[in-house]
Design goal:
The protein contains 11 helices and no strands. By secondary structure, it is mostly helical.
C-alpha cells in the first residue's frame, strides 16, 4: 500500500511538472491526461484507511490541515482555489462522523453537475470538486468494509457517469476523473492481494506522503519562478 501511495505521488509530481514547468494543458497532453489516475488513487487509499469514530486520530487530521495550509501558501495565489488536501480533509471528517454510513456518500458524485465548488472552469473554491472527492474517498471506505467486488461494481457505475457529467458541465476537465476510478480501484485490489510487493523508493514516498506532497510543490514552484526569471 505504501508503494501504491508512492506511485500516486510520482504521478502527481509528473502532472505538476508537465503543467507548471512545461505549460502542457490536460486536454492536449496525453501525459497529463494519464496522470489523472493519481487523484482517485489518493482518494480510495485515504478512504480505505479512514479511521472510525472509535479509532479517531486527531493528530493525523491536524497534520493534513497543517500541510494544507503550507501548500496553499503557494497554490492559492497561483490558481485562485484551494488544493485537494482541503477537500480530502473535509471528506475525512465526514467519513469519521458518518461512520458505517459513509459508503453511502459514493452517490455524492451524482451531485457533481450542480456542485459549485469546482474550480475549473466555474471558478469555485476547490481545485477538485468536493462532490467527486467525497465520492471517491467513500468508495475506498466501501472497499475496506464490503470487499473488492462491490467496490469494482460501484467504480464501473461511476465510470459510466462520465458521459452525462461531461455533457452537463461543458469546458470542465473534472469529468475525466470518472474514467480513472475503476483503474484506481483495481490497483487497490492488487495491492490488497499482494501486500508483500514493494518498491523501496516508492515505498519511502508512500510512508511520508504529506511531506513529499508539500516539498514537491515548493520545489516545482521555485523552479517555475527561476525559469520565468531567466527567460524574462
Amino acid at each position: 500500500m505504501d508503494t501504491l501511495r508512492g506511485l500516486a505521488i510520482v504521478m502527481m509530481v509528473t502532472d505538476h511538472v508537465a503543467g507548471l514547468l512545461l505549460g502542457h494543458s490536460i486536454v492536449d497532453s496525453p501525459i497529463r491526461l494519464a496522470m489523472r489516475l493519481s487523484m482517485p488513487l489518493f482518494c480510495v487509499l485515504m478512504g480505505y484507511y479512514l479511521p472510525t469514530r472509535e479509532t479517531w486520530r486527531a493528530r493525523r487530521f491536524a497534520e493534513i490541515a497543517v500541510t494544507a495550509v503550507i501548500v496553499n501558501l503557494v497554490f492559492y495565489p497561483t490558481y485562485g482555489c484551494l488544493d485537494i488536501l482541503c477537500s480530502l480533509l473535509i471528506a475525512g471528517v465526514v467519513g469519521v462522523v458518518s461512520g458505517r454510513f459513509f459508503p453511502i456518500f459514493v452517490s455524492a458524485a451524482l451531485l457533481y453537475p450542480v456542485d459549485p465548488s469546482d474550480g475549473w472552469p466555474s471558478g469555485g473554491p476547490m481545485d477538485f470538486p468536493l462532490s467527486i472527492v467525497l465520492s471517491f474517498v467513500a468508495l475506498g471506505s466501501l472497499h475496506a468494509r464490503y470487499g473488492v467486488k462491490w467496490a469494482c461494481w460501484i467504480a464501473a457505475a461511476l465510470t459510466v457517469f462520465y458521459l452525462p457529467a461531461t455533457s452537463l458541465t461543458p469546458g470542465s476537465v473534472s469529468p475525466l476523473l470518472f474514467l480513472f476510478i475503476l483503474p484506481a480501484t483495481a490497483l487497490l485490489a492488487l495491492a490488497e492481494r499482494f501486500p508483500s510487493v514493494s518498491i523501496p523508493g516508492l515505498q519511502w514516498l508512500g510512508r511520508n506522503p504529506l511531506k513529499s506532497y508539500a516539498v514537491q510543490y515548493y520545489v516545482i514552484f521555485a523552479l517555475s519562478y527561476a525559469i520565468s526569471r531567466l527567460s524574462g
